[in-house]
C-alpha cells in the first residue's frame, strides 16, 4: 500500500510508529521530561556553536577580539552568541533539576544504577568539561584566571596531570587545546553518554513513581503502562518550546557578557555562577580545594546507589540518604553564598587574599628628599651604586603587576 500522507511517508522511511512503545503515564509530567529538555538544549548549543566557530579565532592573541567582532560586526552574531550563552545556563539548570529529581525519587536504584552513572558522567562532562573550556577559550580576564586554576590543579595531580597540562605539548598553546576539546572531544563524549543513557532508559523504561504500590517495584507493571513514548516526546517538545522560547527572548534582550580584556595579572575575577561553590571553598583551602571538592562530589554521587540499596523508593523510607544529600547541597549553597557576597580574591596557597593595589615607591623614599637651594648639594653616587627601583612583582614597567604561579599575593 502506498503512503497516503506526509506522516505515512515518513513512517515508511523511518518507522517512526515504532516509537509508540508503552511507557508510564507519569512520563508526561514536567519533572520526568527534564532529561529530554536538557537534550534539546544540547542540540541548540551544537548548532549555535557551529555558527560561532566560523568567526571565532582561538589564538590567545586574538580570541577576545574575535568574540567582540562577532558581537559587533557579524550579522546576527550578538544574538547567536547570546543564545549560545543563555542556553548553556539553561542546560545546567535543567541538568541539576534532573539529577535532583532522580535522586529524590530513588530512580537510581537497581536495575537503573548504570543509567545513573552515565547521567553523572554526562553532568560532569557538560559542566566541568564543556562549560569550563567555553569559559577559557574566549580569553578575557575570566578565561585567563580560569586557565591558571586549571594548570595549578593539573600540577596537583602529578604524573596524571601531565597528560592534560601544558607540558604535554609545549609548542601548542593550552588555549588551542582547550578549543579543540570544546568543539570535538567534549561533544563526542556527550553524544556517547547521551546515546548510552537513552538506550538504558529504553531498555528499563521510565522508573515507577516513588510513592504508592510501585515504590518497591523495579518496573511499572505492563498493565499500568498507559502512556506512549510519542506522548512523552510531545511533552518534551512542548516544555522545551516554552523553556527555550524564554531563553530566546532573554537572548534578544540581554547580550551574553564578556569580561574585561586580559590584564596579564590576577585580579581575583570570580568564576561563572556554577563554580561559585568552588570559589568559596578555595578561599579556605587554596586552589587545591577545587580538585578535592570536585572529587568529593563525584565520589558521593558514585556511592549513592551503593549506600541506598533497599528496594523502596519512597522518600519517607530513605531519610538517611536524603539527609546526606541535603547536607551536601547546603554546604555547596553556603560556599556559593559566601563567594557571591565576598569581594574578589586571588587564591594561592591556603586561604584567600583581598586584592590591594600596591603603591610604587616615591623618589623621595628611595633617594631621600631633593636638595633645596639653601642646602649643599650632595655628590650623587655613580649609577652602579644607585639602589634598584622596587617595582611590584619584578616588572620593569610601573603599574604592571604580573602574578606568577605560586605568588602568595
Return the CATH architecture of the domain at 22-268: Up-down Bundle
Task: Please tell me the overall pLDDT.
Answer: 84
Radius of gyration: 27 Å
Q: How would you characterize the largest beta sheet? A: 2 strands, antiparallel
Give me the oligomer status.
single chain
Low-pLDDT windows of residues: 349-409
How large is the share of residues in beta strands?
under 5%
- Total strands: the figure is 4
Number of helices: 13
CATH homologous superfamily descriptor of the domain at 22-268: Cytochrome Bc1 Complex, Chain C
First-residue to last-residue Cα separation: 78 Å
Strand numbers in spatial order across the main sheet: 1-2
Task: Outline the secondary-structure elements.
Elements: H1 6-14, E1 22-23, H2 34-53, H3 63-72, H4 77-104, H5 113-137, H6 141-156, H7 159-162, H8 174-204, E2 227-228, H9 229-253, H10 276-285, H11 288-307, H12 319-341, E3 345-347, E4 352-354, H13 363-367
Helix pairs in contact: 2-4, 2-9, 4-5, 4-9, 5-6, 5-8, 5-11, 10-11, 10-12
Summed up:
The chain has 409 residues and is mainly alpha-helical.
Folded structure, characterized:
The strands form two sheets. This protein has a two-stranded antiparallel sheet with strand order 1-2. The protein has a two-stranded antiparallel ribbon with strand order 3-4. The protein has helices at residues 6-14, 34-53, 63-72, 77-104, 113-137, 141-156, 159-162, 174-204, 229-253, 276-285, 288-307, 319-341, 363-367; strands at 22-23, 227-228, 345-347, 352-354. Helix 10 packs across helix 11. The protein is built from 13 helices and four strands. It has 409 residues and is mainly alpha-helical. Helix content is 55%, strand content 2%. The chain is globular and about 65 Å long. It has a domain at 22-268: Cytochrome Bc1 Complex, Chain C, CATH 1.20.810.10.
